[in-house]
C-alpha cells in the first residue's frame, strides 16, 4: 500500500545471504508457488506508485506491444505509429519504459527484447 512498515539496519554483517522463496539458512521454510514479479527498491514507494505497478495492464514482455507473447516487426510497427508521442507516463503501451514519451529509449528496449 506504499506505507513503510518498518526498517532495519544490520551493523554486524558486511553482507547478508538472501534467497527468494526460501529462508536463508536452507531450513524447511520454503515458499510453495511461483513468483512472477520481484522488485527491489532503495526507498519506500508511495501509494500512487504501488497502484501504478500493481494495476499495470500493458504487455507482459517489455516490447510486446500487441500482447501476442513475442517481440517482432508487428510491435515495431505499433511503436512507429506512436513515435514522438508524449503525455502521461505509461498511458500508451508504446511507452515501454513508462517515461511519458515514445522515443529512442523505447525503441532500444524493444530492439533489445527482439534480438534476444
Helices and strands, with pairings:
Layout: H1 47-54, H2 73-81, H3 104-115
Write structural notes for this entry.
The protein has 116 residues and is mainly α. It has a domain at 73-115. It is built from three helices and no strands. The longest helix has 12 residues, at 104-115.
Taking pLDDT < 50 over at least 5 consecutive residues as the criterion, the unreliable ranges are: none
Number of strands: 0
Structural class: mainly alpha
Distance between the termini: 35 Å
**Overall pLDDT score:** 81
Overall geometry: elongated
Residue fraction in strands:
under 5%
**Series of H and E elements:** HHH
| Alpha plus pi helix count | 3
The main β sheet shows up as: none
Spatial extent as radius of gyration:
19 Å
* Helix share bin: 25-40%
InterPro entries: ConA-like_dom_sf, Dockerin_dom, Dockerin_dom_sf, EF_Hand_1_Ca_BS
Domain Dockerin: 58-116
Protein name: Dockerin domain-containing protein
